[in-house]
Amino acid sequence: MGPRGKAVDGTFTVDEVFDGRTATRAKGIIHIVTGAGGAELYDPWQTDVKASWQPWTRAFVSDLHSFTVLDVAAKTLKLRQLDAEGRELDAITLTK
Questions:
Q1: Whole-angstrom Cα distance, residue 23 to residue 16?
Q2: What is the extent of the structural domain holding 37?
Q3: Residue range 20-44: average pLDDT?
Q4: pLDDT tier at 88 (50, 70, 90 boundaries)?
């Protein structure tokens, strides 16, 4: 939705090839939303219910607190999501 709840013209396309592991060059813009650091967890059931995710969502961890680590080197960006014990929950690599 756009300003004041009005629809915005246009469409979006999901790059089905990019997976952040073997295919690390995205065709378009990557949006990353992260924030599981301290507030009370909400909707923990959603982690395993893909039907409740937005169609462009690739990973959704709603049942654990976690933090994001971002490593940047030359033309590579690596993002890792770690739980409170340091276990990797998810990771992607972007190559320019």
A1: 10
A2: 3-95
A3: 84
A4: very high
Please, what sign has the CA dihedral across residues 22, 28, 29, 32?
negative
Looking at residue 61, its amino acid is V
pLDDT value at position 1? 56
At residue 5, the 3 state secondary structure works out as: helix
pTM: 0.72
How many domains is the chain built from?
A: 1
Would you state the structure tokens that stand for residue 59, as one six-digit string?
């990973």
DSSP codes of every residue in 19-88 = -SSS----SS--------SSSPP--GGGGG-GGGS-TT-S----SS-EEEEEEEETTEEEEEEEETTS-E
Averaged confidence pLDDT in the chain:
86
Output the pLDDT for position 3. 67
Cβ-based neighbour number of residue 92 at 10 Å: 19
Quickly count: other Cβ atoms within 10 Å of residue 66's Cβ: 18
Amino acid at 92: I
